[in-house]
Design goal:
The structure is a homodimer. Chain A has about 350 residues and is α/β, with parallel strands linked by helices. The first copy, chain A, is about 25% helix and about 25% strand. Chain A has 2 domains: about 170 residues, Quinone Oxidoreductase, Chain A, domain 1 (Alpha-Beta Complex), CATH 3.90.180.10; about 140 residues, Rossmann fold, CATH 3.40.50.720. In chain A, the strands form 4 sheets. In chain A, strands 3, 5, 6, 10, 11, 19 and 20 form a 7-stranded mixed β-sheet that branches. In chain A, strands 14-13-12-15-16-18 form a 6-stranded parallel β-sheet, sandwiched between helices. Chain A has a 3-stranded antiparallel β-sheet with strand order 2-1-4, with no helix packed on it.
């Protein structure tokens, strides 16, 4: 079978490999790959050598934003042939830490987890893959290919769960949210904010392409400068990871705000910052800053629910480009108008 | 009666003023001032003009770390003549925000609060003061003058409450804590950590004076470099507000750590910082950073409880100097060996 592989950090090695069929020790559920989404992490693996192939392999099968169709599943797994599933990215170590042992591998304490398509475990970017039922999340048939967004939406579902749980330390009934970054994660964060009935503003620097329209069609405001954000948001979900944006957001936290940091970026140089002033802003405003990465199974389930409740036409517009497996490396060249590029594994 | 007053920002004006007796509109409970503690905020008011006198006054009565003895109290207030009380610092606006309306004025959303001895309301540094019963916290007679530590301990009680409430967003059973800064707030934070049965490390730069011994006698470790902190703390209570310390702490957050920022400092210049890297550390570790300031009534009550359970001899050693009201400005010159300097209002 064919799979999308790379030697991490060597872009010239990115291509399609012919691999043996997955073996039963990789999981009891056999799945036919339908699609995978490409994100910044994939590009970092290819270009900068982020990530690690499985032991004994030079190459890593990419793909952690997955959608597949069950081919065979054991009795009692709750899965039948033909069902759509999304695979969970992270796996706890066989000797789990206390958080992993509770299914909260997203909060793993000892770092000995693996991640499909990222860290020491092949990804889902293959024509067939196997997974244990506990790491396969059912996707309703009505979602179809939109199920490929379950993984990025799970990150966002976790972000909003964190807002609720952390915000509850005091009286907190937020009605306004700012999302920084109108990439797939930012747009999904905005979707979930709108589903909560919030007044939502999305900040991004681009003025062309589909992003402004996608935001407007959610009923949210689109701005290109923080100075234009009004009202002051009680919740910020920061999805860019860009230093200047993070600093701007933290420097403007209003009283009792919750700021979720959910973005990563690389390569921004140090700039002069008064950390004492930033500290004073957070202290005097009782602000909370929550870093979040990865997701537990419950967040995938929440993500499915959020996508199912969304306007299907709107979600479809997030998938701006589909690339066949045979040409999957084309997806690494994101254009300014791309939101989410998806690899069609059947093609 | 006499009171310690200043025109904020004019150190030469700091002195003892003869003022009229407090009037009933200032509160139904009449209190004889016993003592007030001096902290960095008082010094900022005197030297840098932080704070605001009440409307119509050039001078501000200082004193927000208070201890007094009830002279008269209305029926049903739960207070009798002779009872010790600590006064709460913050008052909500007559038209309270939703948080203030719930008694959580420490999370005031509209900023229209006042603060005794700091913002638009005279402080407790007077021979007599008045307060409404809802803002007078009973202090057991057994605590005596140690009750002057109730206010700084309330800030710390709130910090630990925040650790519990924010930490509960995931599995969180922390056993190790790092306290940065061995001033009064840091030492009280360490006391509360030890009372929780935690493994506690306290970081400060001084190597002489009472601090190392106070930390050792709590059963905690004293270090002068973050490199010496082992084990990695699951909780950090940052009590210095110094930019370099805050940055060091945030840059080393272990997975799922809770960092409470409870310190303020001024005058540290900007330094080159990669905010993108700092962001990535917080994101990839699912770290939470909580700024905290001020305290609600429940935190004062928790503070009284913590002080009552502490070793009396140890707490007494925090009060390193007592200064009579007539010479209160001597307290503004903190020496390296001072922990908490207290003004004796009866003298």
């Amino acid at each position: 079978m064919r799979a999308m592989t790379v030697v991490p950090g060597q872009p010239s090695t990115a291509g399609v490999s012919e691999l043996p069929e997955p073996t039963a020790d990789e999981g009891a559920v056999l799945v036919e790959g339908v699609a995978v989404g490409i994100c910044g992490t994939d590009r970092e693996i290819v270009e900068q050598g982020y990530g690690v192939p499985p032991p004994g392999s030079d190459r890593l099968v990419l793909g952690h934003e997955s959608l597949g169709r069950v081919v065979e599943a054991p009795e009692g797994a709750g899965l039948s042939p033909g069902d759509l599933v999304a695979g969970i990215v992270r796996r706890p170590d066989p000797v789990p830490c206390p958080a992993c042992a509770r299914g909260e591998w997203d909060y793993c304490r000892n770092g000995r987890y693996t991640e499909r398509g990222i860290k020491a475990r092949h990804g889902y970017g293959a024509q067939r893959w196997r997974v244990d039922a506990g790491f396969a999340v059912p996707v309703p048939a009505e979602l179809g290919v939109l199920g490929v967004l379950v993984e990025p939406a799970s990150v966002v579902a976790k972000a909003w769960e964190q807002v609720d749980r952390v915000g509850d330390r005091t009286w907190f009934e937020p009605s306004s949210a700012l999302i920084t970054g109108a990439g797939p994660v930012g747009l999904l964060a905005a979707l979930l904010a709108v589903q909560r009935g919030m007044d939502v503003t999305v900040l991004d620097r681009v003025t062309d392409g589909p992003k402004p329209g996608l935001v407007a069609d959610l009923g949210a405001r689109y701005v290109t400068s923080l100075a234009d954000v009004d009202p002051q948001p009680e919740v910020v979900v920061e999805c860019t990871g860009v230093g200047s944006v993070v600093l701007d957001v933290l420097s403007r936290t209003p009283p009792a705000a919750v700021v979720v940091l959910a973005g990563l970026s690389s390569g921004t140089p140090p700039v002069p910052v008064s950390i004492a002033e930033l500290n004073a802003t957070l202290v005097l405003n009782n602000a909370v800053v929550v870093g979040t990465v990865n997701a537990a199974r419950r967040h995938y389930v929440d993500a499915v629910d959020a996508l199912r409740r969304a306007d299907r036409g709107w979600v479809e517009r997030l998938l701006t480009r589909r690339v066949p497996l045979s040409r999957w490396t084309d997806a690494l060249d994101a254009t300014g108008v791309d939101v989410k590029v998806v690899i069609d594994l059947s093609d």
